[in-house]
């Protein structure tokens, strides 16, 4: 199915594609988005998961135009959180201002 993702901070991404497949309670998703130009220091969270997550899931970055190093993308609760270096250092929306992000991942749904 298609995935209508959103961003926190009131920003609307440009979505080239966002899709998912659910097999049993496993959800596989992928998306290619552009973050709008902004100067927000808010933590970047991609919301609107097709199904609620009951446990943490992982994503891999396939492509980005961002210069942020060592990205980690985790599905946690109702969102996809983007971290740098470790899952304790949040990426801000401004760090992805105008940048593209292509990622794929999976998680366990309720």
Characteristics of this structure?
single chain; mainly beta
How much strand?
A: over 45%
Mean pLDDT: 92
Poorly predicted spans: none
Which sequence of strands runs across the widest sheet?
Answer: 1-4-7-6-5-8-3-2
Number of helices: 0
The percentage helix is under 10%
What's the N-to-C terminus distance?
17 Å
Concise structural overview:
0% of the residues lie in helices and 53% in strands. The protein is mostly beta strands.
Q: How does this model look, in words?
A:
The two termini are 17 Å apart. With 110 residues, this protein is an all-beta fold. It has no helices and eight strands. It has an eight-stranded antiparallel β-sheet, with no helix packed on it.
Give the SSE map.
Elements: E1 6-7, E2 14-23, E3 26-34, E4 45-47, E5 53-64, E6 71-76, E7 79-84, E8 100-109
Antiparallel strand pairs: 1-4, 2-3, 3-8, 4-7, 5-6, 5-8, 6-7
């Amino acid at each position: 199915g298609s995935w209508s993702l959103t961003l926190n901070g009131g920003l609307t991404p440009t979505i080239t594609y966002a899709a998912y497949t659910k097999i049993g309670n496993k959800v596989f998703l992928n998306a290619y988005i552009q973050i709008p130009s902004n100067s927000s220091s808010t933590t970047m969270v991609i919301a609107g998961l097709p199904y609620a997550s009951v446990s943490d899931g992982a994503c891999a970055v396939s492509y980005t135009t961002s210069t942020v190093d060592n990205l980690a993308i985790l599905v946690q609760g109702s969102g996809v959180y983007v971290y740098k270096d470790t899952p304790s250092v949040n990426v801000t929306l401004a760090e992805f201002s105008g940048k593209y992000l292509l990622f794929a991942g999976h998680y366990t749904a309720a």
